[in-house]
Amino acid sequence: MKRLLTLIAALAVFFTCACSHIEDETDEAAENEEVVFEKDEEYYSALKDDNVTINVYNWGEYIPDGSDGETINLNAEFTELTGIKVNYTTYATNEELYAKLKSGGASYDIIIPSDYMISRMIKEDMLEPLDMDNIPNFKNIMDKFTDPEYDPGSVYSVPYTWGTVGILYDNTAFTEEEAENIGWETLWDERYAGNILMFDNPRDAFAIAEEMLGYDLNTEDSEKLHDAAELLTEQKKLVQAYVMDEIFDKMGAGEALLAPYYAGDAVTLMDEYDHLSFVIPESGTNLFVDAVCIPKGSVNKRAAEMYINFLCEADIAYAVADYIGYSSPNAAAFELLDDEVKEDGISYPDDEFLENHTTTFRNLSDEANLEMQTLWTEMKSSEEETPNRLIVPVFMALCVIASIVILIRRHVKKKKEIF
């Protein structure tokens, strides 16, 4: 009887372990199973045999290109699906994009400007109205992004990403208490002279200065703009360099300690470098939206609208958010994100914070834009030099002084020899 009971117990243990193993394998297979997102082949094949090429002009580091061997090559996927080739180039600032389009020196079918630049381009008749019948996936865009102040009714744009601005910092250089107190004023702290990076575009830089002064980030008041420029001039002696995409290399290599930048890029950098952390100042910051538009005069508008629709596919919008780290306005893509990302407080801050501590840029008047640009140019070319720029002239001055001293000593020595 004892042997029978022992045998039954052993069999029970065996079947329990076996079932558990099968269950584990099933769970693992479910985790690794790739969800297939069906796409409307009839829609996407409409221009397949027309030998179409579209020119896409986008921010640097702002689209998955497959270069890491893990993510999709978005443009290649689009071409494979539609037969439409993509000529892809990049820019560093909204102002660079605007100047390129305004000069008429290039023709583009897709651009992805920020909110305030979109409203400026609408005002100056630089964008094509979109045919939403050709962009059925617009239904995936979250309601709170479908009627933006910069483009009421989304007539000219479809949201691509959104985010906030904060401060990226080297966590090895700050105590826990110091890190908790990092705010915009830290970028003016003389203890970090030569280790501070700053935005190399006027709108973002002025916004930080305006926040420091307690001004509206959309102020057009001339006196307040001058106050902001003066504050930026005071900061200049502490700034190592004015940068945009260069921040990736500089902060990654530990060449600087502090840099204001966009939350999405900060997430990407923190994934790669353990020594980097990010804080969104409680005092307030900019909330921005980058959206896809078609410039006036595009010769491939139908293909461009197909590209926009492709960007709004759930899996494609997810791939964009996952690769570049920026927040997605696409509800279907948001559902695919890990809870860890949704709740990290950086990519998707809670609604209370967004409502009470962020400001969206509006388009400024031509006069205010011109004044800001003029003040920015004057600030950057002022005599108050940044630390790196001081090195060469100081070195040259020391060389001249040393040469003079040597000549004087030689002259004195000769006089002594004569007498």
Sum up the structure in keywords.
419 residues; alpha/beta; D-Maltodextrin-Binding Protein, domain 2; five-stranded mixed sheet; 17 helices; 47% helix
Structure described in brief:
The protein is built from 17 helices and ten strands. By secondary structure, it is an alpha/beta fold.
* DSSP helical segment count: 17
How many separate domains make up the residues? 2
CATH class of the largest domain: Alpha Beta
**Spans with pLDDT under 50 lasting ≥5 residues?**
1-33, 386-400, 414-419
- SS content category: alpha/beta
Mean model confidence by pLDDT = 87
Strand fraction equals 5-15%
- Main sheet makeup: 5 strands, mixed
CA(first)-CA(last) distance = 127 Å
> What's the SSE pattern?
HHEHEHEHEHEHHEHEHEEHHHHHEHH
E-strand count: 10
Structural write-up:
This protein has 419 residues and is of the alpha/beta class. It folds into 2 domains: 41-162 and 289-354, Periplasmic binding protein-like II (D-Maltodextrin-Binding Protein, domain 2); 163-287 and 365-387, D-Maltodextrin-Binding Protein, domain 2 (3-Layer(aba) Sandwich). The chain is built from 17 helices and 10 strands. It has helices at residues 2-32, 41-44, 74-82, 94-103, 115-123, 176-180, 202-213, 222-236, 247-252, 263-272, 301-311, 314-324, 331-334, 339-342, 351-357, 366-380, 387-418; strands spanning 53-59, 85-91, 110-111, 158-170, 196-199, 239-243, 258-262, 276-279, 285-292, 358-359. Helix 7 packs across helix 8 (222-236) and helix 8 runs parallel beside helix 16 (366-380). The protein is globular and about 60 Å long. The model is unreliable at 1-33, 386-400 and 414-419 (pLDDT under 50).
